Amino acid sequence: MATSWFSPVDNYCERIDASFWSEPLNALTNAAFLIAAAFAFVQWRRAGARDWPALWLIAVTTIVGIGSFLFHTFAERWALLADVLPIAVFIYSYFFLAMRRYLRLGAIAAIAVTVLFVALNISFDRLWFGLFPAFTLNGSVGYLPAALALLAVGMLCLMKGVLDAGKALLLAAGVFAGSLVFRSVDSAICSTLPMGTHFLWHMLNALVLWILMNAAIAHRPGHDR
User: How far apart are CA 118 and CA 110, in angstroms?
Assistant: First the structure.
């Protein structure tokens, strides 16, 4: 079983062999996450450096960049976990923060809604493929609940008068939809674009995380807008 964690994973156009730098664009564009985290950290410091939930998001974004870099260089099963787990942590952390900070749910209600969101995420693949078995989206199906959550929570924020946060979430939803398109078409265009489009998923996703972190910092407790 231990050996299986070192099995190679080849999911993207750019990878042509098992070497460390076989995906240079996919690997190096993970620096965008580190840049996003750095900009958010500067904003966090300017905002008083006391918003610990926002600092947590900044730290997780940094780990997202590192984990994705590991996956696109080592390209083994253990590195796949290093890639996807930090992303999941950011999604669920931000969802909970949005419930508390933007929609002002109580702690118990926010936990309950977040648990429901986790349950939806876990079961979404089965629901999707039961309805659309032919549409795999190159492994992007699991990210659709996050896109829908950005859209839904953003609209709820606007309805409740939390305008800045709502606009930011809807902007993030739009950028995230674009990034999902580039992730989904990567394998389909290998013959015409050998480098693929997965690296654009990284760059746009880094922008999404920056938009979300910036919104959280701007909407910190005591500075509602």
Answer: 12
